[in-house]
Specification:
The protein is globular and about 70 Å long. A hairpin with a 4-residue loop joins strand 5 and strand 6. It contains 11 helices and 26 strands. It folds into 2 domains: 124 residues, Golgi alpha-mannosidase II (Immunoglobulin-like, Sandwich), CATH 2.60.40.1180; 363 residues, TIM Barrel. It is α/β, with parallel strands linked by helices and 501 residues long. The relative contact order is 0.15. The chain has an 8-stranded parallel beta barrel with strand order 3-4-7-8-9-10-11-12, surrounded by 6 helices. A 7-stranded antiparallel beta sheet has the order 2-15-19-20-26-22-23, with helices on one face. A 5-stranded mixed beta sheet has the order 16-1-21-25-24, with no helix packed on it.
């Protein structure tokens, strides 16, 4: 059995974790909205047509913030289509995903749903086909109390109190040629700057996210971020990052190493932000919003067969495997380790569309494999991230060198007197004994060791077998001679919780 060591100290602080690190995303895409969160004919629909079974599962995840309404969708979206009497709302050709948008759900309905699941809304504005005027009007509609055209329009729609949406995205993936209204960095930087100014003039309390690169492999990456921040630095609070990973080669060892790419992506963007800060002699620090991240590759061939102009077709419905859950766990660990600068992150997406929650129209809902590492991190990953010193055996894969078998993050919740270790064993063959020096936590005892594992890396959860991949409590951790000794089984996600005596 391989051995690894880790040292944890209360003094090795990365920083306080913003609860919004465990956010998610709902786009008007596929069955995320219609048939996902909203299905008035479903036997479990509430008074507004929202599925109560889905609400319960989202509450279980304790998602603090949800990005809406897109995504590529937002770059062609007229927000006015989704307000007022539903029977008067237009049906539109939705060009981003080649469907029909019925507009039964709009900003007010989504805010109502978010309130029911206990989440804030992270609203995106259209900077593809529209610009500053429509964006400032939407802020007025959502956040201004009363006495103006758009605030009074909201009140006439039955919402007397403002929605008070705090975080706003200035468009989506505007560097992508696939994007409606695609722009160069300078074109986007200028419109984002002017949009940010008028939005904050309407409501100075809001926070704004500028579009970073759609992914690290974009040819314009790095130069895009630098140019955009040259224009927007003093007007925005975050810059976005997006990434998705797949296992097209069916190479598990290489697939599980892809969180190293995420780590380098984050480090690179931090460096760019700080370069622009130094260049501008600014005292302001730009933080990161990793507002799209996940595994996405299973559904791409099936999506090619969906006829154009369908209403809420089953688009981008990846059925997640056990190995996908392991990589999602590694990506969560990466986000926690960078929580000093990554303040917001959104698992993309939340229901049906590359999602931890799946539903059947008029039928059941269930948890996908990736539901579990995300729920564990969201529930137990609140507090201060500690910089754990890890000495782990390593391996080389097709695309990566020196990949540690043990990937781990540590969170200390001083208020609850709890310490939580999140750890993945990437080894396909061997368990690893992890010896952790916890001298700063000498009066702590093991509360539980939760393990997610399966003999088949391609195992999935289905409507018929929703608990095929399911976490269990193990006896794999104990304290001996002042050290925490944990056995991390091969290919496993582990949550080790300690609490003060």
């Amino acid at each position: 059995m391989m051995k690894a060591k880790m040292i944890i100290s209360k003094d090795f602080k990365i920083g306080e974790i913003d609860k919004r690190l465990y956010g998610s995303f709902i786009e008007h895409l596929g069955r995320a909205v219609y048939g996902g969160i909203y299905e008035p004919a479903h036997p479990l629909a509430d008074d507004k047509g929202f599925r109560k079974d889905v609400i319960d599962l989202v509450k279980e995840l304790q998602v603090p913030i949800i990005r809406y309404p897109g995504g590529n969708f937002v770059s062609g979206y007229n927000w006015e289509d989704g307000i007022g009497p539903v029977e008067n709302r237009p049906r539109r050709l939705e060009l981003a995903w080649q469907t029909i948008e019925t507009n039964e759900v709009g900003v007010n309905e989504f805010v109502e749903w978010a309130n029911r699941v206990g989440a804030e809304v992270m609203m995106a504005v259209n900077l593809g086909t529209r610009g500053p005027d429509e964006a400032r009007n939407l802020v007025e509609y959502c956040n201004h109390p009363s006495g103006s055209y758009y605030s009074d329009l909201r009140r006439s729609h039955g919402f007397e109190e403002p929605h008070n949406i705090k975080v706003w995205c200035l468009g989506n993936e505007m560097d992508g040629p696939w994007q409606i209204g695609h722009k160069t960095a300078d074109e986007y930087g200028r419109i984002a700057c002017e949009t940010a100014k008028v939005m904050k003039w309407v409501d100075p309390s809001i926070e704004l996210v500028a579009c970073g690169s759609s992914n690290r492999s974009m040819q314009t990456f790095a130069d895009w971020e630098a140019r955009v921040l040259e224009h927007t630095y003093e007007h925005v609070d975050y810059i976005s990052l997006h990434t998705y990973y797949g296992n097209y080669e069916n190479d598990t060892a290489n697939f599980l190493a892809k969180s190293l790419d995420m780590d380098e992506f984050i480090k690179s963007v931090i460096s760019i932000c700080d370069y622009v800060k130094a260049k501008k002699r600014s005292k302001k620090t730009i933080n990161l919003s990793f507002d799209e991240w996940n595994v996405w590759y299973h559904s791409r061939e099936a999506d090619k067969k969906i006829p154009r102009w369908s209403i809420a077709p089953p688009q981008i419905e990846d059925i997640y495997t056990f190995e996908d859950a392991l990589l999602v766990g590694c990506m969560l660990i990466t986000l926690i380790r960078h929580s000093d600068r990554v303040k917001i992150a959104c698992l993309a997406q939340l229901v049906n569309v590359i999602a931890p929650i799946m539903t059947e129209n008029a039928g059941a809902s269930w948890r996908q494999t990736i539901f579990y590492p995300f729920s564990h991190a969201s529930i137990f990953g609140r507090g201060c991230a500690l910089n754990a010193i890890i000495d782990s055996p390593r391996y080389d894969s097709r695309d990566f060198c020196d990949v540690p078998y043990i990937d781990a993050a540590v969170v200390y919740n001083e208020e609850k007197n709890e310490l939580t270790i999140f750890a993945v064993n990437r080894s396909l063959d061997e368990s690893v004994t992890l010896e952790t020096d916890i001298r700063d936590f000498a009066d702590y005892k093991v509360l539980e060791h939760i393990t997610l594992e399966h003999e088949n890396v391609k195992a999935i959860n289905t409507k018929e077998n929703p608990m095929n991949v399911f976490p269990v409590k193990s006896a794999n951790s104990k304290i001996e001679d002042g050290k925490l000794i944990s056995v991390l089984n091969k290919l496993s996600w582990n949550v080790i919780r300690l609490r003060k005596n």
